[in-house]
Automatic annotation (TrEMBL):
Signal peptide: none annotated. It comes from Paratissierella segnis. Belongs to the creatininase superfamily. PANTHER family: 2-AMINO-5-FORMYLAMINO-6-RIBOSYLAMINOPYRIMIDIN-4(3H)-ONE 5'-MONOPHOSPHATE DEFORMYLASE, 3-DEHYDRO-SCYLLO-INOSOSE HYDROLASE. Keywords: Hydrolase, Metal-binding, Zinc. This is Creatininase family protein. The keyword Zinc applies. One of its GO terms (molecular function) is hydrolase activity, acting on carbon-nitrogen (but not peptide) bonds, in linear amides.
Amino acid sequence: MYKVSDYNSGNIMDAFEEKKNVILPLGAIEAHSDHLPLSTDILLVEKYTLRLAEMTNSLVLPVMPFGQVWSLSEAPGSINIKEENLVGVLVDIIESLNKNGVKMVTLISSHFGNSNVMKTAARIAYEKYPIKVIYFIYPGIDEVKDEFINLNDHHFFLHACEVETSMMLYAASEHVNMDKAKKGTMKVPKDVDYTPVKWTEFSDNYIIGDARLATKEKGENVFRHILKKASDIILLEKSKL
């Protein structure tokens, strides 16, 4: 068993001792245009982390469904949690795992808005507890960008586009409506790199790219690549324990 929630108080401690690493998936409820659900980041990270748990003999916690979505907080359906509140929750979870004798926690998000939250929580935990904390989103995803036809001009803005829609077609196709897939914003304002900018100021359908070009095959290739990169990281860090 890989899901922490499938254990009970009589057998979880043995699982913590044997598997050593616990994965905490972070998602978000956020606008992803009309062809993808608000739960896109939850569905992706659930598929991603369960497979990683199997590949690395780790445990995985239930997905945290809310994230920092300031950039799209004005879009319909988005639920934004302030970074400082999320950091506090993550640190509390890490503290609880530390008390249970867990040696390592892996924070993984499918939502780039959670990047600073994970990093900050890991730094706080580093100063307070002996438990090892690592964190990442999609390691190596830049290495497969040539698989895609028409990316936006800012490669870190993967949102409801050809890439993310392809990943959803592979991971949770029943939640994708390609009949509503559209071309979105292809040019991201340069000032997003150095000043706060709401995405609703430059996108009216919340797609940063062209969702119409997505395919299941592309999504499978992306998942295969990032799973290899991510599992290598986890296994390397587990070997150091």
